[in-house]
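Supplementary Methods. Inverse-folding protocol.

Structures were first reduced to a discrete structure-token string of length 1000. This string, shown here, constituted the complete conditioning input.
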């Protein structure tokens, strides 16, 4: 009975709500086919939309039209649109360490669902065409179409649709109103200047229940958002301003207007104003998670504008409301960061305690690496470096390899160790991280610089530690020394599952025992006759026996390797641990010292360790020499590269104390004088300077002390650098005699400080050209001596070896008889004849011509090949499908060095790209600009691949050339001819950059 009453009341309300007369828009008609004819089968058949006005729109017709429009078409289309947005949200991955995007989805993700969006447009169009245009759902269908175009990123069509809704669905108050009334005219009786473009929404309660609100006002909001996406910010601002002052804009859309206004300010990085409007729009969020995400973004906006109290409030709200554990962690971390300026460690302690509670909860198990990393960050703010280090290590231990927090933790640990001058640990931590994973979030150049420096410093420090440990052990009494060695051997072999070594009767660790091993599994081994596994005493005895023989073995695969690795990690952090330093075959892998897996079983034996000790005079002298050399090399890096003058002084002082008779002692005193002057200790700086002047006159050390500017040139003193740079350019340009004379003058003034190894190298190349091999070898030896860590040292060593065998090599080549087939000649470029084997032009594959519809052609190209857009300027035309050279442009370089560059890249191609036959030919634009042509690649894509490799390799392969003296491009044969004529390098590079993302 009750259900029957409800049905009756509902029917009455439906009839009352539908009796409200709505006047259709007679000034426009819907022409679904335009100039196209209907299919012949349906030429005489009218659509329901075409019958609009032929029948009265009474109550019954209204109910039928509205019902089918709503439930057969709008409901499904709207659900599809919501599904598109939901999938885009799922695909979106926010990085809470950065400023969040304004919306929780990316339009690229919505646009990728083109098929679904087209289906929505089709269904909405059908909903209009198949029903009377006086239906209450027509405007809602149009709004769906506009939104679909928007999410397809078809902004022009979206804007036209929203504009259509604005102009054609403007409601009239009375039946006889002027159809041509202009939208936006003054309201009647409201006075001049009161402009309204919104329309009032007066609907009955029943109407509100049974239909959606009119879409015209909402279309104005979407028009603003479309303008913003089109970067038409002026148009968007004008529409925002009008609506903000429009009294007819309904209250339900005030939050929508605040949302797009906040988005307008956000896109212009005006974060304070964006925060004001976003705060008003929070209730506009679709879900609780979307609201918490906006709260997090609002907090970030407040933080960026220095409003830390407001930021803290909204970070707290975001943590309370979010369903995303990662946001929860970051919100708590960011809230704690807002206390950084207050000096309130109590708040930081509370935040750390909260995060530790989270880490203990099961639902946060997979996020423990993030949590502990965050706690480490908070600990450093207190500052509490010791606990911070512990939390970073925990973050690494809990890392699931699905995030880059392991690398972030290694980065923080490396930075801490570097600042604390624990350079070996810093090197291990930096070596353990993958720099590529941090490039998006951090400036990785300082890390790469530190890694480069530490890769050269740490071997020196480890060598010193090893020799110190060996000497310390050698100085012990023999019995104590042997006991330590045997204990080390036993521990090592047990940890690695090797058979125990028999040390003989004097082994203090093993005991003579003639009894046969006891059978623990005999039941008579127990007085009670119990089985082994039921007897606690026997089980305990068995456990002890197993542990004493085999040690601790974790229940994991490859346990031997794992145990050895963990043990060596501990050893590597203990500078005084002898066992680590006694392993000469240890390898550094992932920041930890690991023994070679293929080391023979007898490699770590008592005899091998004993043989390592410097127990004889000769071995002790060799050990001291290793310490001296490494102390000096380490001090040089501390002084000149790290600028850690305290550590440099420690190394120099030890050298001066322990190796006073060493040949490098004068250079050590120079270093001490310089470093003490840097830390402000003038007394000691003058003391060591006087030692050099009085005891080592006439040496290079004395010249440096007498002319301090020569020492400062290591820091690239501007005056000295400018003079040597000019000499460098003279060499490269071929003014050899003038360059030699200028260099002699500069060397006499600045104590033969050669400025850079590049300058020495090109000087040596000049002497080789002049066949002054002895001079060239002397210069190259200076590179080896003065620049031991330079990449050019290896090239210098190789070149010295070749020069010393020059006569032998030339005689061999002279006597060598080679018969070669005559190569086919081809004409390339400006009538130049080169061997055909050097030409690798591959014509693009011919495509059989077919008749294809333009729409299909467009789709095929865009979906498969994605050919870059062709850019043109007044001279050049890019044709990516044609064969391209990779060209090295050398500016003001003498032919000697052009040849040297060609030789360098020839070696590079043979060593690194042996599977590809890449020939190099020389060309020139004029007397000042030389070209190296790396012969043609199939198309621009293949040329770009080689371009990336050779550009990266250039800094190593031609390190003697300054980067300002050369550049690389890719170019077709036709463009090369044109470039040699007009010499418009700037214009051509700009054209390349426009098309290939500023690579050139």
């Amino acid at each position: 009975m009750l259900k029957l009453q409800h049905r009756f009341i509902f029917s009455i309300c439906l009839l009352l709500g539908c009796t409200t007369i709505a006047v259709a828009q007679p000034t426009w008609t819907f022409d679904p086919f335009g100039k196209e004819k209907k299919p012949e089968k349906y030429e005489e058949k009218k659509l329901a939309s075409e019958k609009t006005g032929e029948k009265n729109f009474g109550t019954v017709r209204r109910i039928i039209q509205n019902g089918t429009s709503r439930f057969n078409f709008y409901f499904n289309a709207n659900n599809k649109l919501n599904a598109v947005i939901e999938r885009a949200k799922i695909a979106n991955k926010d990085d809470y360490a950065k400023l969040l995007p304004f919306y929780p989805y990316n339009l690229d993700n919505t646009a990728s669902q083109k098929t679904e969006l087209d289906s929505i447009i089709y269904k909405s169009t059908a909903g209009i065409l198949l029903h009377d245009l006086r239906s209450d759902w027509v405007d809602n269908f149009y709004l769906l179409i506009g939104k679909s175009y928007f999410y397809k990123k078809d902004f022009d069509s979206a804007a036209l649709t929203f504009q259509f809704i604005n102009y054609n669905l403007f409601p009239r108050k009375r039946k006889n109103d002027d159809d041509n009334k202009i939208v936006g005219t003054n309201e009647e009786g409201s006075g001049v200047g009161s402009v309204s473009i919104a329309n009032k929404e007066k609907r009955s309660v029943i109407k509100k229940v049974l239909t959606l609100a009119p879409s015209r006002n909402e279309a104005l909001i979407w028009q603003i958002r479309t303008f913003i996406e089109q970067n038409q910010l002026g148009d968007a601002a004008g529409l925002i301003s009008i609506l903000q002052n429009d009294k007819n804009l309904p209250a339900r859309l005030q939050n929508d207007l605040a949302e797009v206004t906040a988005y307008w300010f956000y896109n212009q990085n005006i974060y304070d104003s964006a925060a004001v409007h976003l705060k008003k729009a929070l209730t506009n969020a679709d879900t609780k998670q979307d609201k918490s995400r906006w709260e997090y973004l609002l907090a970030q906006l407040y933080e960026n504008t220095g409003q830390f109290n407001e930021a803290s409030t909204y970070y707290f709200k975001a943590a309370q409301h979010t369903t995303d554990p990662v946001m929860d962690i970051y919100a708590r971390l960011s809230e704690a960061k807002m206390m950084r300026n207050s000096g309130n460690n109590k708040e930081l302690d509370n935040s750390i305690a909260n995060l530790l509670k989270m880490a203990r909860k099961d639902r946060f198990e997979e996020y423990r690496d993030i949590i502990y990393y965050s706690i480490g960050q908070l600990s450093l703010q207190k500052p509490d470096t010791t606990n911070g280090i512990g939390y970073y290590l925990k973050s690494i231990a809990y890392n699931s390899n699905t995030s880059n927090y392991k690398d972030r933790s290694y980065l923080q640990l490396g930075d801490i160790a570097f600042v604390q001058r624990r350079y070996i640990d810093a090197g291990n931590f930096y070596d353990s991280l993958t720099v590529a994973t941090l490039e998006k979030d951090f400036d990785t150049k300082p890390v790469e610089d530190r890694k480069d420096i530490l890769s050269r410093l740490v071997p020196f420090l480890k060598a010193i530690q090893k020799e110190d440990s060996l000497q310390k052990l050698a100085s012990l009494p023999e019995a104590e020394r042997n006991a330590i060695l045997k204990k080390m051997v036993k521990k090592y072999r047990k940890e690695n599952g090797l058979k125990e070594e028999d040390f003989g009767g004097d082994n203090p660790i093993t005991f003579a025992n003639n009894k046969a091993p006891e059978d623990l599994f005999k039941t008579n081994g127990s007085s009670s006759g119990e089985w082994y596994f039921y007897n606690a005493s026997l089980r305990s005895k068995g456990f002890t026996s197993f542990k004493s023989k085999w040690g601790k073995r974790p229940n994991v695969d490859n346990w031997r390797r794992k145990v050895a690795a963990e043990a060596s990690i501990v050893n590597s952090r203990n500078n005084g641990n002898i066992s680590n330093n006694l392993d000469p075959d240890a390898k550094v892998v992932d920041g930890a010292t690991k023994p070679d897996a293929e080391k023979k079983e007898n490699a770590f034996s008592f005899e091998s360790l004993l043989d390592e000790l410097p127990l004889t005079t000769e071995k002790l002298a060799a050990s001291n020499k290793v310490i001296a050399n490494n102390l000096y090399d380490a001090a040089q890096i501390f002084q000149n590269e790290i600028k850690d003058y305290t550590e440099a002084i420690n190394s120099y002082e030890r050298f001066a104390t322990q190796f006073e008779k060493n040949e490098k002692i004068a250079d050590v005193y120079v270093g001490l004088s310089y470093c003490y002057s840097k830390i402000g200790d003038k007394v000691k700086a003058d003391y060591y300077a006087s030692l050099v002047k009085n005891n080592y006159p006439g040496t290079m050390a004395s010249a440096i002390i007498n002319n301090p500017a020569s020492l400062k040139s290591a820091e690239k003193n501007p005056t000295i650098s400018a003079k040597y740079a000019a000499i460098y350019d003279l060499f490269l340009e071929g003014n050899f005699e003038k360059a030699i004379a200028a260099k002699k003058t500069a060397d006499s003034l600045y104590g033969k400080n050669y400025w850079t190894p590049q300058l020495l190298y090109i000087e040596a190349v000049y002497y080789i050209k002049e066949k002054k091999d002895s001079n060239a070898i002397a210069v190259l030896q200076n590179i080896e001596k003065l620049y031991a860590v330079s990449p050019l040292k290896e090239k210098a060593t190789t070149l010295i070896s070749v020069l010393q065998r020059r006569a032998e090599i030339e005689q061999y080549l002279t006597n060598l008889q080679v018969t070669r087939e005559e190569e086919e000649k081809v004409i390339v470029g400006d009538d130049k004849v080169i061997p055909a084997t050097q030409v690798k032009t591959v014509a693009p594959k011919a495509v059989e011509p077919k008749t294809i519809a333009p729409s299909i052609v467009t789709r095929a190209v865009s979906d498969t090949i994605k050919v870059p857009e062709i850019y043109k300027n007044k001279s050049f035309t890019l044709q990516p499908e044609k064969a391209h050279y990779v060209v090295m442009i050398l500016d003001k370089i003498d032919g000697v060095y052009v040849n040297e560059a060609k030789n360098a890249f020839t070696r590079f191609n043979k060593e690194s790209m042996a599977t590809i036959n890449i020939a190099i030919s020389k060309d020139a634009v004029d007397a000042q600009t030389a070209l190296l042509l790396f012969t043609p690649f199939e198309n621009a894509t293949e040329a770009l691949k080689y371009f990336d490799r050779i550009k990266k390799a250039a800094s190593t392969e031609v390190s003697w050339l300054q980067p300002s003296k050369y550049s690389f491009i890719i170019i077709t044969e036709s463009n090369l001819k044109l470039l040699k004529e007009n010499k418009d390098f700037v214009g051509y590079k700009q054209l390349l950059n426009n098309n290939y993302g500023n690579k050139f």
